[in-house]
Structure formats: C-alpha cells, structure tokens
Amino acid sequence: MYHxxxxxxxxxxxxxxxxxxxxxxxxQSGTQMMKLKSGTKGLVRxxxxxxxxxxxxxxxSRKSEKAKIIIDSIYKVTEGRQxxxxxxxxxxxxxxxxxxxxxxxxxxxxxxxxxxxxEEARTWITGLKYLMAxxxxxxxxxxxxxxxxxxxx
Length: 153
Prior knowledge:
CATH topology: PH-domain like
Helix content: 25-40%
Strand content: 25-35%
C-alpha cells in the first residue's frame, strides 16, 4: 500500500480553485446590489467583473466611464456595516451579512453595497480579496501601500 504525500493539500487547493472560479463566474455574470450613497435611499444597480478581471463595473449609470473601479485601486474590502455611510443609514434594517464596503482610489473613496442574501455578499468579498491578492505588479503593491500610509483606517 502506498501513501500519497500531499494529497490532502492538493485536494484543498483544488477545492479552493473551484470556489474562486465559481466566484469569478458569478461576478462576471453580474449581481443586482443596492449602492448606498449619502443623502439617498440607495440605488439598485447590476455590478459585474469585466471580462479581463481588471475592474468592477455597474449599470445603469449616467456616467458610464466613471461607473467602474479598477481592481488595482482597491485598498480593502470590509464585511458588514462598518463604513460611515452605513452608520448614517441607521434607519435601514440591512442585514450586516449582506453588506460590504470597497475602499478604493487615491482618496480612499467608499463603495457601500447591499446584496439580497449573505451568499452573494460572501461571493463578492471572497472574489475581490482573491483578485486583490493576485496582484503581481510590484508597482501596484507599492502604490496601494502608499495610499494606505496616507489614509490609514
């Protein structure tokens, strides 16, 4: 009888790869989410990952060129109702497990999103964290670190 070393690790790696690919597929297909903005009740938009997996886009939007976030510009993704806008919308009975915030850009802008169920939120959070970790360009990593140093949260 032979013992295969690393088969458990290989199996876990395979399952992780399957999960990540499922996240990417769901994200590229698009998900209806509510985009919270200060002073408004929120806007329902279709959010999706572009075919190159380099940016998140949404529609409809009157400013289609601005309706995107480049993955390299994302500093962090937080789960739950942690951002300032979520706190301002205290009257909204949003399930925290359906809420997440994307911090991005040179001035640490926030995109606050609410999904219709916790599974959708987990899919997007997992997928975004995977895409952020996959940056191989050292300049992008250095830029992200400088942004973090400038705007620590």
